[in-house]
Amino acid sequence: MYYAEMNTCGSCKYYKYEGENTKGYCSWYRTYYYPDDSCDHWEEGNVSSSGGCFLTTACCEHKGLPDDCRELTALRYLRDEYMKKYDFGQALINIYYEKAPAIVDKINHMADSDEIYEGIYNKIQEIVVMIENKKYDD
Asked: How many C-beta neighbours within 10 Å does residue 112 have?
């Protein structure tokens, strides 16, 4: 794992790891910290190595797919190799990291969560095809 011990930013559920020797994003304080910085608002949670693909990860887990499946790999590529290069892309990523965990939690508590995840997964499939065809702006 990339985080060291409890009560550090890197082990808090609000922290998004960005890489070794790099500050990650804290959605609670809406700023950047190193993973080993002390966290004043530390909360235990599902700290994931998925790199922030919360909805996609939830859909892929629902389908029984591994963490390195085609869908997650393609969307991580889009995020890391295309979106992060642009201010608007990084802004969208930050909004996603802030909002997506609550969306997944809400879906998980809905009676029709299976149907919702199926619908999202179908959209993800369309996006993956666009990424594979290098239609990043689409």
From this structure: 10
CA 80 distance to own-chain centroid? 12
CB of 54 within 8 A of CB of 101?
A: yes
pTM over 0.70: no
Amino acid of residue 43: E
How crowded is residue 131: how many other Cβ atoms within 10 Å of its Cβ?
Answer: 19
| Domains of the chain listed by start with CATH number | 1-45 (2.20.70), 54-132 (no CATH)
DSSP state string for 40-102: TT-------TTTT-HHHHHHHHHHT--TTSHHHHHHHHIIIIIGGGSHHHHHHHHHHHHHHHH
Q: Which of 84, 77, 86 is nearest to 131 (CA)?
A: 77
Q: Which two tokens stand for residue 9?
A: 């930013």
Q: Which amino acid is at 41?
A: H
pLDDT in tens, 31-80: 787 777 777 766 654 433 334 557 888 888 889 888 888 998 899 899 88
Residue 46 contacts by C-beta under 8 Å, 6 or more apart in sequence?
13
